[in-house]
Amino acid sequence: MDTQDVVKDIMWSHPDSIKLLNAFPTMLICDITFKMNKYRFLLLETVGVTSIEMIFFVVFSYLQSKRMNNFEWDLNKVRGLFMKDDVLPHVIVIDKDLPLMNALKVVFAFATNLLCEFYISKNVRAKCKILVTKAKD
Is the pTM of this model over 0.70? Predict the structure, then answer.
């Protein structure tokens, strides 16, 4: 029987990023790049924020698909980077991605999940456009 090792998901982080994550654990921001690369994987970037509002990269992850179990795997690995179980992020900012939102509810159940301002503005503009068009009629 011929077995084959296949990479499905992969993530990496720099040791200094892990130190920064543990020094500034309050907030994380996750963003997914939907344009596939030549390997057809999604890129999930997770960044943290310092007390002087500087961002730092925490992890980069290539995920095979946009399913909840892929995000759960990644978020559990991120959770494993924290030195203490009682020091976890209070706020996690994400884009409008339902599987990621659901995975966050499982892995970081006590964190507040916020949508990125870009997506909120986009939704408000779309709704306002409909209302303005109706008002003109």
Answer: yes
